[in-house]
Amino acid sequence: MTALRRRLLGLVLLAVAGAAFAGAATVAPAVVPGSATASGTPDFVVPSPVSLLVAPALLAAGSVLVVSGGAALVDADLSARTALLAPALGAVGALALGAGIGAGSGASLAAFGLPESLAALRSGPPAAVAAGAVVGGAVAPVVRASTTEDTVALLVAAVLLLASVVAVPGSVLALVAGGVAGVLAVGALWAVDPANWRP
CB atoms < 10 A from the CB of 198, how many? Predict the structure, then answer.
């Protein structure tokens, strides 16, 4: 694959990842700072009944596409250790959206400043979205580590997968949605960017 074609592919992948992140911002559940339920925990805004399925899937696919698109844009080989950025991007994106950063209001700073809001981010719907995004994002380093025989990266990615399942055990649907999206993203990249993904 020529360098120019590969860089154009990187731009396309980054544009698709941006669209995935924008879609996730519209459906991700977010903390409503200053509101509290009877138990004292903050209330959540859940824009759609399928938010816990769609948001982790879009974040997982977007994070995998960002990592691969970035490598293609600079015409570099995607190492398994660089692919470990995908689950981190998914988790950070989910928690940022859960705090309301994608909503375009100043509420996100308040969500990070209140202890009850932080607790809700760690255990509520944003945590389920983050766990699903980590599972889907971890598919990329698992595949890259398997094809490049990088045992350390494979072990780290496997630990991330298991930690996501253990950290938020009640989020099975979000975990499955994120995992399926990660597999589909890697499968698509296997076809369109064989230089990075095939052995």
Answer: 10
Is 48:27 a contact under the CB 8 Å cutoff?
yes
- Rounded to whole angstroms, the Cα distance separating 66 from 146 reads 20
HSE-up of residue 116 (Cα within 13 Å, Cβ side): 13
161-177 per-position pLDDT tens digit: 888 888 887 788 989 99
DSSP code for 24:
H
Give the DSSP letter of residue 124. S
Average pLDDT, integer, range 165-192: 90
Q: What are phi and psi of 61, to 5 degrees?
A: -65, -40
b/e 4-23 (16+ beta carbons within 10 angstroms → b): eebeebbeebbebbeebbeb
Taking a C-beta distance cutoff of 8 angstroms, is the pair 128, 168 a contact?
Answer: yes
pTM > 0.90: no
